[in-house]
# Entry
Amino acid sequence: MPELPEVETVRRGLAPVLEGAVLAKVTAFRPDLRFPLPPGLATRMTGRTIISVERRAKYLLIRLSGDLIMLSHLGMSGRYRVYKDAPPPLEPHDHLELVTDTGVTIRYNDPRRFGFVDLFDAAQLPTQKFLAGLGPEPLSNAFDGPALALGLGERRSAIKVAILDQRVVAGVGNIYASEALYRAGISPKRLARTVKGQRAVRLAEAIRDVLNDAIAAGGSSLRDHRQTSGELGYFQHSFAVYGRGGEKCPGCDCEDGIRQMIQGGRSTFYCAKRQR
DNA sequence: CTACCATCCTGGTTGC
DNA sequence: TGCAACCAGGATGGTA
# Structure
């Protein structure tokens, strides 16, 4: 599922019901996801107050009283669902449950179990293994053309592959990489090192814009993504190129239409006429 | 440095 | 209709 907009959608669903509440009960229904769950997860979290629900790149960070932080990555198929009243029976692939003193139940469901959870002391935040090394947050003021060009450096890889590297810019995944390059008019095959100056400015703006548009739509629901209410996101209806191989390019009347190719083992969609 | 591959796991879609 | 192959939003580590 989740690239930055989907994770941000989940964060916005969790924050209002969790912030300020106390964790009355925490249950793990299996010992591991992608990695083993932190030892004593339930014991360590129970009784703490939730200070805030934050996001960094594709990670959710649940800040707890007593300087503890729960980190959650949704992998490919992770979902969080909020139940404000009595929750329904457990469903297949429900792996984690948080119940608050306010009577809210949060369940984490992840069929593929590529997601994972970590628990660490707030003092370790700057060096936390999953967070250290992440590039700039694309919706922050720190991200602009020069910052992107700096992150790309002298890389000789294709720009599409480069912006999927979380060290270059944090939070862009396969869908929004194709969409941003289309908006910026940059070929996904272009060498990353040649994206600088005005091109980098255009791409940084395109990344920011497409992510913001997707967040406003509640993310993209291709298969797994749901908002925490269970509703679908609907940005998938606004894709210009992703998943539209063979269709007409929405921005021009070129004959080939939208092309599809594989880069780094992942599908890329683009218009050869508009993107150079 | 780069490209490519395999890996974790399940489920939906496609094609025969 | 049945079944097998293939594909999927992520991230990492290994190889050549």
